Protein backbone atom coordinates (compact mmCIF):
# COMPACT_ATOMS: atom_id res chain seq x y z
CA UNK A 1 0.00 0.00 0.00
CA UNK A 2 1.16 3.52 -0.72
CA UNK A 3 1.22 4.63 2.91
CA UNK A 4 3.57 1.80 3.90
CA UNK A 5 6.24 3.34 1.68
CA UNK A 6 6.37 6.29 4.08
CA UNK A 7 6.82 4.13 7.16
CA UNK A 8 10.32 2.90 7.92
CA UNK A 9 10.19 0.78 11.08
CA UNK A 10 13.96 1.01 11.61
CA UNK A 11 13.80 4.81 11.65
CA UNK A 12 10.76 4.76 13.94
CA UNK A 13 12.63 2.54 16.38
CA UNK A 14 15.61 4.90 16.53
CA UNK A 15 13.41 7.96 16.94
CA UNK A 16 11.30 6.42 19.71
CA UNK A 17 14.24 4.92 21.57
CA UNK A 18 15.78 8.37 21.80
CA UNK A 19 12.44 9.95 22.79
CA UNK A 20 11.66 7.40 25.50
CA UNK A 21 15.12 7.52 27.04
CA UNK A 22 14.97 11.30 27.18
CA UNK A 23 11.72 10.94 29.14
CA UNK A 24 13.05 8.49 31.72
CA UNK A 25 11.89 5.28 30.06
CA UNK A 26 14.93 3.15 29.37
CA UNK A 27 14.71 0.63 26.52
CA UNK A 28 17.24 -1.91 25.30
CA UNK A 29 19.03 -1.36 22.03
CA UNK A 30 18.49 -4.87 20.71
CA UNK A 31 14.71 -4.78 21.07
CA UNK A 32 13.81 -5.31 17.38
CA UNK A 33 11.92 -2.93 15.16
CA UNK A 34 8.31 -3.82 14.32
CA UNK A 35 7.12 -5.36 11.07
CA UNK A 36 5.89 -3.04 8.36
CA UNK A 37 2.20 -2.44 9.09
CA UNK A 38 -0.81 -3.54 7.08
CA UNK A 39 -3.58 -1.33 8.43
CA UNK A 40 -7.18 -2.31 8.89
CA UNK A 41 -9.71 -0.05 7.27
CA UNK A 42 -11.52 2.47 9.47
CA UNK A 43 -14.87 0.67 9.29
CA UNK A 44 -13.42 -2.55 10.73
CA UNK A 45 -11.74 -0.64 13.54
CA UNK A 46 -14.88 1.33 14.35
CA UNK A 47 -16.95 -1.86 14.49
CA UNK A 48 -14.46 -3.55 16.84
CA UNK A 49 -14.62 -0.41 19.00
CA UNK A 50 -18.42 -0.53 19.04
CA UNK A 51 -18.45 -4.21 20.02
CA UNK A 52 -16.11 -3.50 22.90
CA UNK A 53 -18.14 -0.48 23.92
CA UNK A 54 -21.22 -2.70 24.04
CA UNK A 55 -19.52 -5.49 26.00
CA UNK A 56 -18.13 -2.96 28.47
CA UNK A 57 -21.71 -1.99 29.34
CA UNK A 58 -21.97 -5.36 31.10
CA UNK A 59 -19.48 -4.05 33.64
CA UNK A 60 -21.81 -1.08 34.10
CA UNK A 61 -24.60 -3.54 34.95
CA UNK A 62 -26.48 -3.35 31.66
CA UNK A 63 -28.62 -6.46 31.06
CA UNK A 64 -26.90 -8.79 28.62
CA UNK A 65 -30.12 -9.26 26.62
CA UNK A 66 -30.18 -5.49 25.95
CA UNK A 67 -26.53 -5.50 24.89
CA UNK A 68 -27.00 -8.53 22.69
CA UNK A 69 -29.98 -6.92 20.97
CA UNK A 70 -28.05 -3.66 20.40
CA UNK A 71 -25.21 -5.60 18.81
CA UNK A 72 -27.63 -7.51 16.59
CA UNK A 73 -29.62 -4.40 15.63
CA UNK A 74 -26.39 -2.65 14.59
CA UNK A 75 -25.19 -5.65 12.56
CA UNK A 76 -22.09 -6.15 14.69
CA UNK A 77 -22.53 -9.82 15.56
CA UNK A 78 -19.87 -10.93 13.06
CA UNK A 79 -17.30 -8.90 15.00
CA UNK A 80 -17.86 -10.74 18.27
CA UNK A 81 -15.10 -13.09 19.37
CA UNK A 82 -15.97 -16.51 20.77
CA UNK A 83 -15.16 -15.18 24.24
CA UNK A 84 -17.49 -12.22 23.80
CA UNK A 85 -20.28 -14.53 22.67
CA UNK A 86 -19.77 -16.43 25.91
CA UNK A 87 -20.02 -13.19 27.91
CA UNK A 88 -23.47 -12.61 26.45
CA UNK A 89 -24.75 -16.09 27.31
CA UNK A 90 -24.57 -15.57 31.08
CA UNK A 91 -25.46 -12.82 33.49
CA UNK A 92 -22.43 -10.69 34.27
CA UNK A 93 -22.39 -11.59 37.95
CA UNK A 94 -22.28 -15.29 37.01
CA UNK A 95 -19.19 -14.93 34.80
CA UNK A 96 -15.83 -16.11 36.17
CA UNK A 97 -13.87 -13.38 37.93
CA UNK A 98 -11.22 -13.28 35.21
CA UNK A 99 -13.88 -12.68 32.54
CA UNK A 100 -15.24 -9.79 34.58
CA UNK A 101 -11.73 -8.35 34.88
CA UNK A 102 -11.18 -8.70 31.13
CA UNK A 103 -14.43 -6.87 30.41
CA UNK A 104 -13.47 -4.07 32.80
CA UNK A 105 -10.21 -3.51 30.92
CA UNK A 106 -12.05 -3.09 27.62
CA UNK A 107 -12.40 0.58 28.45
CA UNK A 108 -8.66 1.04 27.77
CA UNK A 109 -9.02 -0.36 24.26
CA UNK A 110 -12.06 1.86 23.63
CA UNK A 111 -10.05 4.91 24.75
CA UNK A 112 -7.21 3.88 22.43
CA UNK A 113 -9.50 3.40 19.45
CA UNK A 114 -10.91 6.86 20.16
CA UNK A 115 -7.36 8.23 19.95
CA UNK A 116 -6.76 6.29 16.73
CA UNK A 117 -9.88 7.95 15.32
CA UNK A 118 -8.63 11.39 16.30
CA UNK A 119 -11.31 11.92 18.95
CA UNK A 120 -8.76 12.93 21.61
CA UNK A 121 -5.02 13.46 21.99
CA UNK A 122 -4.34 12.05 25.46
CA UNK A 123 -2.98 8.54 24.99
CA UNK A 124 -0.37 7.99 27.68
CA UNK A 125 1.56 5.16 29.31
CA UNK A 126 0.36 5.84 32.83
CA UNK A 127 -2.91 7.78 33.12
CA UNK A 128 -6.41 6.34 33.01
CA UNK A 129 -9.38 6.93 30.77
CA UNK A 130 -11.01 10.35 31.07
CA UNK A 131 -14.73 10.93 31.65
CA UNK A 132 -14.92 12.69 28.28
CA UNK A 133 -14.96 9.29 26.56
CA UNK A 134 -18.71 9.02 27.17
CA UNK A 135 -19.32 12.05 24.95
CA UNK A 136 -17.34 10.54 22.06
CA UNK A 137 -19.40 7.39 21.53
CA UNK A 138 -23.03 6.34 20.97
CA UNK A 139 -25.08 6.13 24.16
CA UNK A 140 -26.12 2.53 24.26
CA UNK A 141 -28.32 3.10 27.32
CA UNK A 142 -30.41 5.39 25.08
CA UNK A 143 -30.28 2.87 22.23
CA UNK A 144 -28.39 5.28 19.98
CA UNK A 145 -27.37 3.50 16.77
CA UNK A 146 -23.74 2.94 15.79
CA UNK A 147 -24.15 3.57 12.06
CA UNK A 148 -23.36 7.29 12.08
CA UNK A 149 -20.32 6.83 14.31
CA UNK A 150 -18.95 4.06 12.09
CA UNK A 151 -19.44 6.04 8.88
CA UNK A 152 -17.72 9.13 10.31
CA UNK A 153 -14.80 7.24 11.89
CA UNK A 154 -11.51 8.20 10.22
CA UNK A 155 -7.97 7.25 11.09
CA UNK A 156 -5.44 9.85 12.12
CA UNK A 157 -2.11 9.72 10.27
CA UNK A 158 -1.03 6.11 9.80
CA UNK A 159 2.55 7.05 10.51
CA UNK A 160 1.42 8.64 13.79
CA UNK A 161 -0.47 5.47 14.73
CA UNK A 162 2.49 3.24 13.93
CA UNK A 163 4.87 5.47 15.85
CA UNK A 164 2.53 5.27 18.84
CA UNK A 165 2.41 1.48 18.62
CA UNK A 166 6.20 1.38 18.52
CA UNK A 167 6.37 3.62 21.61
CA UNK A 168 3.98 1.36 23.48
CA UNK A 169 5.92 -1.73 22.40
CA UNK A 170 9.15 -0.32 23.81
CA UNK A 171 7.52 1.13 26.93
CA UNK A 172 5.91 -2.27 27.45
CA UNK A 173 9.37 -3.84 27.69
CA UNK A 174 10.38 -1.24 30.28
CA UNK A 175 7.22 -1.73 32.36
CA UNK A 176 7.46 -5.52 32.22
CA UNK A 177 11.15 -5.49 33.11
CA UNK A 178 10.38 -3.28 36.10
CA UNK A 179 7.67 -5.72 37.15
CA UNK A 180 10.03 -8.70 36.90
CA UNK A 181 12.85 -7.00 38.77
CA UNK A 182 10.76 -5.31 41.45
CA UNK A 183 11.52 -1.79 40.25
CA UNK A 184 8.98 1.00 40.14
CA UNK A 185 8.39 3.95 37.82
CA UNK A 186 5.53 6.43 37.83
CA UNK A 187 6.02 6.90 34.09
CA UNK A 188 4.44 3.58 33.13
CA UNK A 189 1.52 1.37 34.15
CA UNK A 190 1.91 -2.18 32.83
CA UNK A 191 -1.81 -2.97 32.68
CA UNK A 192 -2.67 0.25 30.87
CA UNK A 193 0.16 -0.25 28.39
CA UNK A 194 -0.87 -3.82 27.59
CA UNK A 195 -4.51 -2.98 26.93
CA UNK A 196 -3.74 0.06 24.81
CA UNK A 197 -1.01 -1.70 22.87
CA UNK A 198 -3.47 -4.45 21.94
CA UNK A 199 -5.78 -1.94 20.23
CA UNK A 200 -2.84 -0.40 18.39
CA UNK A 201 -1.65 -3.84 17.24
CA UNK A 202 -5.15 -4.65 15.99
CA UNK A 203 -5.22 -1.43 14.00
CA UNK A 204 -1.78 -1.74 12.44
CA UNK A 205 -1.88 -5.41 11.48
CA UNK A 206 -4.89 -6.58 9.50
CA UNK A 207 -3.84 -10.22 9.83
CA UNK A 208 -4.32 -10.24 13.63
CA UNK A 209 -7.66 -11.28 15.11
CA UNK A 210 -8.57 -9.60 18.40
CA UNK A 211 -8.36 -12.75 20.49
CA UNK A 212 -5.02 -13.90 19.06
CA UNK A 213 -2.87 -10.76 19.31
CA UNK A 214 0.56 -11.43 20.78
CA UNK A 215 1.93 -8.91 23.24
CA UNK A 216 5.47 -10.24 23.32
CA UNK A 217 8.34 -7.86 23.98
**Tally of domains:** 2
Radius of gyration: 18 Å
Principal-axes geometry comes out as globular
Instruction: Please give the number of β-strands.
Output: 0
Distance between the termini: 27 Å
Tell me about the largest β-sheet. none
Number of helices: 9
- The pLDDT mean sits at 95
Order of helices and strands: HHHHHHHHH
Protein model, in words:
This protein has helices spanning 9-22, 42-59, 64-73, 82-87, 97-104, 106-116, 147-152, 158-181, 190-204. The protein is mostly helical and 217 residues long. The protein folds into two domains: 2-38 and 158-205; 42-152, no CATH class. The longest helix has 24 residues, at 158-181.
Features:
mainly alpha, globular, 217 residues
Present the secondary structure layout.
Elements: H1 9-22, H2 42-59, H3 64-73, H4 82-87, H5 97-104, H6 106-116, H7 147-152, H8 158-181, H9 190-204
Amino acid sequence: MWFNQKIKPEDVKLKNTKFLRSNGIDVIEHLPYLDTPNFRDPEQIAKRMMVQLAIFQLHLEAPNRIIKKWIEDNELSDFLTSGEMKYLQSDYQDLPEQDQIDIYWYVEAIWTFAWIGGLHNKLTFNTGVEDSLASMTPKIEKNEPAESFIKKFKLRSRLEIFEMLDKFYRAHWFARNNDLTGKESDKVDLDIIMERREALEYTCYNEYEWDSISLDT
